[in-house]
Amino acid sequence: MKNKEKNSPAPSSMRGVLLAALSGGLLTAAWPTWGIAPLVFIGFVPLLLIEGRIAQGEKGKLFWLSFLAFLVWNVATTWWVWNATPAAIAAWVLNALFMSIVFNVFHLTKKKVCNNPWGNLFLIPYWLAFEYLTYLWAAKWPWLNLGNVFSLRVEWVQWYEYTGVVGGTLWVLLVNILIVNIIQFFKAKETKPIFISIGLEAVILLLPILLSTSMYKHYEEQGTDTEVIVVQQNCDPWNEQFDHQFDAQVIQNNINLSLPLVTPKTRFIVSSESAIQEGIWLHELDQSDALNTLHDYVKRFPQLAFVIGGTTYEWVPRGMEDDFPARQIDGTNHYYYCHNSALLIDTTNLQLHNKSQLTPGVEAIPEWMGFLKNYSITMGIARGTLKTDPESKTLNFNGHKIGVPICYESAFGEYVSTFCKKGADLLFVITNDGWWGDTPGYRQHFEFSKLRAIENRRCVARSANTGRSGFFNQRGDVLQQTQYWVPDAIKATLKANTKITFYAKHGDYLSRIAVYLTFVLLITLIAKILLGLGKSKKTSSRKKKK
Questions:
Q1: Long-range interactions of 153-157: CB distance < 8 A, separation 24+
Q2: Average pLDDT of the segment spanning 415-435
Q3: Which residue of 212, 343, 457, 485 has the fewest CB atoms within a 10 Å radius of its CB?
Q4: Cβ 489 vs Cβ 271: under 8 Å
């Protein structure tokens, strides 16, 4: 064995670095809004080829090579987060680190359980389980989940109404793995597995595209016609929107932009996240100048409701002062909650939904970081953790139930689908993308709404403070969109659909299956390691006796 190891060719360290960097580059070039989505089908190939050579005995530091690949991908696609917070560095490093750990656990499992090209399939449950975790844990960051890549090719993924974006991740990994298997079987001169892999590759790559294209061409939108106006108020969040002297002007801008478009058929006006910043206390709503102004506005048009985002506050009930989101007023024994809210205002009522899926660091601080309870690693606007609703809420008006994902929530497919399960017939995404400037950030965020439209077969109206606002039909097509840094209002007639899709009903079931398979693989891996340790101990004891 020693002679064999000495004679086995060690891979060039520079070649490994180049291949790892190539994987990161391919994944980046595939990502919205670069727009070369097919490159994702070969994005993992260089990294898997490195892994295969190391698994067969060549020397190489797989962890650091995989970390390099994933760091390139993270930084090159989400560098714009830096414009909002220096915590971007931690996000890039930690996400690349987590991806590397997943990839190396897959590598170890393959070596111990099935060290041949078919063992590459073990990557699938591990990666799907990891992506599911990005929706659930404190460091929520599903931005780079692989299924998101097809937002620029919606005609390829109409079947997301059955699988969600998880199906896209499964598709990407299968195609990459089969390409690697073909290469590895070819090198090993194993003819039969080559033809099997080529046949599988052709079917798995082309069949979803053909089925989806047919679905796309023949899909007919369902539901009743509903006229909606979207307002892009275009305030600078750094210098204007959170300046309380500008509050009244923000509301007036919304009225001035939407008023020329209102007709007797208009049912909703939708404005952006956190547009109202005067400080709305829930126990004294009638004291809010912004709400009173908007209430007077809708009185002129009782057939419509105004949906808008705002920051709201409420007192913490007695005995709940230790609740982590509770904030203490300096120098007092009084505690309050802060919410990022979506509000629906009509002639007689006000309803609200509080954001549930919070942006890590910016809106939510893990409880183990209790020393930052009254501070924030954010843009210097808020502090501590926001108080959330325990589950999604629909807002109701004139026979419609509306789901209003707030900003980051639109990245969470299963969560958005809960609005539809509760009867939402339209989805209104309200967001504030101005923090990032004119970068790929707001354009990538815009793309998520296409995927939510397909998953739920719901039309989507999206209002951004600035960035990109627009309308999407049930196939994920963009019907209209605004330009960056231009105050604007647009109008469309959308189909309000109540039919529940398979995905909306069952959520990320593929991810949950992957979690179960991951547990089985981990248990098998641990058993193999323990058996190996037992055998090595017996061997060493026999040698000592001799």
A1: 153/37, 154/216, 154/450, 154/451, 154/454, 154/475, 154/476, 154/477, 155/212, 155/213, 155/216, 156/37, 156/208, 156/209, 156/212, 156/213, 157/208, 157/212, 157/451, 157/454
A2: 97
A3: 485
A4: no
What is the DSSP pairing of strand 350-354 with strand 335-345? antiparallel
33 preceded by a cis bond (ω within 30 of 0): yes
SS3 167: helix
Give the chain's end-to-end CA distance (angstroms, integer). Answer: 20
> Given pLDDT bands bounded at 50, 70 and 90, which one contains residue 6?
very low
Burial class (CB in 10 A: 0-12, 13-18, 19+), 443: middle
Q: Could you give the 3-state DSSP secondary structure of residue 309?
A: strand
pLDDT-derived band at 544, boundaries 50, 70, 90: low
Query: From the CA atom positions of the chain, what is the Rg in Å?
Result: 26
b/e per residue 8-44 (b: at least 16 CB within 10 A)? eeebeeeebeebbbbbbbbbbbbbbeeeebebbbbbb
Burial class (CB in 10 A: 0-12, 13-18, 19+), 264: exposed
The span from the CA of 211 to the CA of 159, in Å, is 8
Which helix (H) or strand (E) segment holds residue 495: the answer is: strand 488-496
Looking at residue 534, what is its pLDDT? 65
What is the tens place of the pLDDT at every residue in 440-470? 999 999 999 999 999 999 999 999 998 899 9
| Domains with residue ranges and CATH for the chain | 2-219+508-537 (no CATH), 224-506 (3.60.110.10)
